[in-house]
Amino acid sequence: MKTINLILITLLLVVSTNSYSQKDLSDYKDIEGVYITSYWGNINVIGTTINKKKVFNIEAKHTDTSKKTVSIDDLSNFVSFEVIKKKLYIQTRKPKGFESIDLNLKIPENLFLEIELLKGGEIYAENLRNGVEINTLNGSVKLERIGKYALVNAANGEIATSFDTIDKKQPISLVTINGGVTVALPHTAKRDLRLISRKNGYVESDFNIDSDKKIINLNSKQYSRQPIINTARINGGGSLLFLSTENGPIAIKKLKA
Amino acid sequence: MKEDQFDKEIMDYLDGVTNKPVNEEVSEQGEELKQILSELKGIPHEKVSPATDAKFYKFVEEKNTNSKPIIKFKAWWPYLTAAASIIILFFMLTNSNNGFEYDYRKLRSNPDRLGFIYELNKQQLSSGDISWLKSELKNEINPNIKVTIVDLLANYQSKLDNEFYNSLKSESIPSVQMALLNSLESSEHIDFSSELLVFNQRKDLDKTVRQKVKYILSNQ
Amino acid sequence: MTGLTDEHLMTNIKNGDTKSLGVLYERYKNILFTFFIRTIQDYNASNDLLMETFERIYKYRSSYSATKKARPWIFQIASNLSKDYYKKWGKRQSIDKLKQEIIMIQPELPDETKSRDKLLHAALNKLKPPQRNIINMYYLLEMTYEDIAANENISINNARIKVCRALKNLKELLKDSEL
Questions:
Q1: Alpha-carbon distance A83 to A89, whole Å?
Q2: Are C137 and C163 part of one and the same domain?
Q3: What is the CATH number of the domain that holds C116?
Q4: For residue B102, is pLDDT > 60?
Q5: ipTM of the complex model
Q6: Mean pLDDT for chain B?
């Protein structure tokens, strides 16, 4: 009896706190990329191939100015969807006050992803094979198991990315103002490096770096007051890996084989 | 008066074709629109880039090569040689950019353009190259590409002037603003204090950017 | 050669004379480029459309009738290209522009930096593309109402009204930006 009560209470709790509104996106066929524009709110995107059936849906949660989370009865009042030339544009409405809209998406892993977060929020994306482009203002960006390339621009927030495959012809550029920049690459990755950390930074690398001039505080984890600006190579060099921060460390890691 | 009729009378007034007396409202609106038209016509026209000219003349050359009888071709030969000389002279004078802009304009994707810009670090850029890169900085939307352009141009400090740093005025992306400010900081020959003071008044400036501006001002 | 009328040049071009095409190009390239930039607001695409205009002038030269004026025929090609471009890319463009405007977070640029030209450009950019197209045909290409009407497949009267409405909207946008 006690167990049943416990289960019932848990279920009630789940239902009452679950204020995500959902929409199935699988009707959008023949899409090559997803373009998300939002203002305030967290954005999570997971690339999917569940049993070879590519799942494609979106959940949204709304938090109003008083920080009260409310359920969204009708997603279309908050988020618009438009397809133009095989690109699915998902845009949240202009915020009223400090309202935020969190988005959780599951999209086929082969789709290209672009995110523009115009005010702030945390961005997380995982398992996307065809490259990612992100422009955000306030909040960190975390990308895991990304393929091909990434261009990430942030202002206040760290950037952490890991690539399980990269396109040797495509550059990777991770730029922020406040926050560290971390990238994890396959151990065979060949890259030309452009490393910029203007203050309170150091460079940490699992790779052997062949640099034009000595890299200050390389692998020492000691914050440098001097700007670190270097052009270098790993594994003989190749396409560009541009890592830049005004304030924070840079780390280049090898993915575990 | 119905709107269509009203608009028709305004256009009659504007085009100077009206014979009957015009009511005050029509003439007032007509004068305002005349003024705007005159200002529009005063805006200077854009100039086509040398790269597009090159593309056009290449197209013309291809058409010439594919066109018919040799005997006809021979008759035009002196004119063609003269035209070719003028074109070569034109490009020598105006288009000393080693074709970088032309190749760049063919690229469509952001990563391709970014990679191309970065590779220019390995080249010696001409004044023409620096010129199109400066205008590309204004036209480009992607912030990562913009930062790469500023990073590239920082190697040519002596060719960067106040006009280049004026891009700050229309720049709203904090990382690009910081890149420009960092480049300005290392410039020894630019005095940008008054412009920075104006820039610093913007309400939308990121806190770190504002700190940088104040730092540069205090050291100038 | 450079003193020849447009119609004479087009007659030469109909006979395969590419030199006349070159003269026509030099004569019209800047105004057409300006038209594209002010209509579709994409620098790269404007260069492409300019090229495509002259490729089409050459390709379809046999369809040009020497009894008609060459200028409206050329401008019709350009205007159709810009409309086709907007149909394909326009909404995406407007999203990019929207993003740019939003990212700018209404910056408070000091008054002294706003020149009248910039205000005019900004106001033109805010017009809806069909109105922008019509205004540019009217003041920039100086097309007649007949030509505009033929281009837009409307009556001459309608063309005049559309030009008027576009100008009035532009006036309102300018007033808003001056506040």
A1: 6
A2: yes
A3: 1.10.10.10
A4: yes
A5: 0.90
A6: 83
